[in-house]
Design goal:
By secondary structure, the protein is an alpha/beta fold. The protein has a single domain, classed as NAD(P)-binding Rossmann-like Domain (Rossmann fold). Helix content is 36%, strand content 19%. The strands form five sheets. Strands 3-2-1-4-5-7-12 form a seven-stranded parallel sheet, sandwiched between helices. A two-stranded parallel sheet has the order 6-15. A two-stranded parallel ribbon has the order 8-11. Helix 1 links the parallel strand 1 and strand 2. Helix 3 runs parallel beside helix 5, helix 6 packs across helix 8 and helix 8 packs across helix 10. The protein is globular and about 55 Å long. The two termini are 32 Å apart. The relative contact order is 0.14.
């Protein structure tokens, strides 16, 4: 099977490429504007911005994971986020819409559910793939990411290609940057015990579990699906912080608590019934097991 993986030097993309290459029958074309430090006889890397590529390879399946991500950028560079996320999707779709793809797979985002959560007054609801997508307070630059990712979903759905949309919920693990767990670990290593969004709750999934679920989802025969990728076990952010400090043998009483940025929802937990129909029983790593494994690999 021939695959194209965009965003291959990014967090999820890197681990996906490595996993696909475990099967010698697979050949992977990996695109990223950053250099991918992987070598394999069945791997061809293309170190370019998607928008600057004139010709894409002929493949069976496309995994479009490239995105301008990182919460701090939603606020500091919102137009760049919108520009890169939408234009890269359009470029790929315009090329592959007339090709005989088995499937065009795109990474959506759990941020798409945030508006509905706010409307429902942050009640601890399970987000399923069929619920309405709502964008609240569009003047808030935070929505630059979720709106551009959702627009990429719309582009994909209307492309005429067989597609699969995977909405990831708080994946964590080695190589991740610009998200809560790695940022908090880096802060406490510097002796800064600041916790932002301490009232929030999130459902975390370790990268290895997310990749296994991704590959199994990509192999389903059914086409034109939207699937949540995540765990439905919800954790309080303050408890996650205390767990990390416990592992580092730091007194959690040293924590300095700060509110989350405007637009950050209190709860985010996926309905994974559709995912379970694909992967079967979800024996995901516990959060403590995952964090300890992450720290061991750093």
């Amino acid at each position: 099977m021939k695959y194209l993986v965009t965003g291959s030097a990014g967090f999820i993309g890197y681990h996906l490429v490595k996993s696909l290459l475990n099967d010698d029958k697979n050949f992977v074309f990996a695109i990223d504007k950053k250099k991918l430090n992987l070598k394999h006889k069945n791997l061809k890397t293309i170190t370019k911005n998607i928008n600057n590529i004139k010709k894409f390879p002929d493949v069976d399946i496309v995994f479009h994971l490239a995105a301008f991500n990182g919460t701090k950028y939603f606020y500091s560079k919102p137009l760049n986020v919108i520009d890169q996320n939408i234009l890269s999707t359009l470029k790929l779709v315009q090329h592959y819409k007339n090709k005989r793809l088995i499937k065009f797979i795109i990474a959506g985002s759990s941020e798409a559910y945030a508006g509905a959560q706010i409307i429902k007054k942050n009640k601890g609801i399970l987000h399923n793939e069929e619920e309405p997508i709502i964008f609240q307070d569009i003047k808030n630059p935070r929505w630059s990411y979720s709106t551009s990712k959702f627009m990429s979903e719309i582009i994909t759905i209307n492309s005429g290609m067989p597609y699969l949309i995977l909405r990831y919920f708080n994946v964590y693990g080695p190589r991740q940057k610009d998200h809560f767990i790695p940022e908090f670990i880096n802060r406490i290593k510097r002796g800064k015990y600041e916790l932002y969004g301490f009232k929030n709750k999130r459902s975390f999934i370790y990268i290895d579990d997310a990749i296994k679920a991704t590959i199994k989802a990509s192999n389903i025969k059914k086409k034109n699906e939207i699937i949540n990728i995540g765990s439905d076990i919800e954790s309080k952010i303050i408890d996650v912080a205390r767990l990390i400090m416990k592992i580092f043998k730091i007194n959690p009483k040293k924590l300095k608590l700060f509110p989350a940025p405007k637009g950050s929802v209190l709860n985010r937990r996926p309905d994974i019934n559709k995912l379970r129909m694909i992967v079967g029983k979800t024996n995901f790593l516990s959060l403590e097991e995952g964090i300890r494994l992450l720290l061991k690999k750093k």
